Fold:
Amino acid sequence: MPKQTLAELQVEFTIHSFTPETRPDGRIFDQDIYFLAKTEDELSVVVPSSLALASHDQESGWRCLEVMGPLNFSLTGILSGIAGALAEADISIFAISTFDTDYILVKKDTFAQAIAVLEKNDYKVNQLNKPQ
Structure:
């Protein structure tokens, strides 16, 4: 029986790190999709790689799978199951959770392998060039 369905996003992402005092570049908010997280130690920004930002540090080349939601807060183990399957295959992830769902970022050079691993573990992945 299939587990969650994930959808491949078409965008390549870059993860940026800034000092916590940094004011976010206004162009971030013009993107179709972006993620911001601020702590006492840093400001992290995830944006499409097409947007160049002058960050303290950055890691480019990330692809993304969206867990199709919305997911109810009473559901447990969704992110853990996906992360665990990928960890067993030595595939590193960067996970982002929102109110409605989760996003799993995987380096683009392991993206096809990540999809294969998830499908082998009974997850359905809606791929861009694969008939649904």
Observations:
- The longest strand covers residues 57-67.
